Amino acid sequence: MQPESLSKAIQLSVAPVFLLAGIGALMNVLSGRLARIVDNAKQLRLTADAGGDVDELERRLARRRMQLVIRSIELLTAATLLIAAMVAAMFLSVISRVNLTLVVVPLFIASMGLVMLAAMFFLREVRLASAL
């Protein structure tokens, strides 16, 4: 393998790696939100177990918010795996000098679709949280 080939492979993988960093930051935000939702749900359960008055609507809202955040995290995790596969395919393409465009392009499109879906679930969760 020529050093130029390795340099080209690294250049091609820079943008997807920045995308992975952005997804990681979003997952960090989501995990923080999930932790707060779980803490709130535990507090509601403790209040109910102690015989306190707990609004059933509030419990269902916490459960729904949890589901939305978890779904968003799952989608971002899947997108991360697809992006990593895309970077690997790009390296293989450069190293082996085989055109893997028909592999890389669908991986990128699919990963962007998953990121968009995750963003939509995140938006739904934020709207639920702000509707209180």
Write the layout of secondary structure elements.
Layout lengths: L2 H47 L6 H41 L4 H30 L2
Order of helices and strands: HHH
Radius of gyration: 21 Å
User: How far is the N terminus from the C terminus?
Assistant: 60 Å
Q: For the report, how would you describe the main beta sheet? A: none
Number of helices: 3
Q: Briefly note the structural class of the backbone.
A: mainly alpha
Shape field: elongated
Helix share bin? over 70%
What would you say this structure looks like, in words?
- By secondary structure, the chain is an all-alpha fold.
- The protein is built from three helices and no strands.
- 89% of the residues lie in helices and 0% in strands.
- α2 runs antiparallel to α3.
- The protein is elongated and about 70 Å long.
- The mean pLDDT is 89.
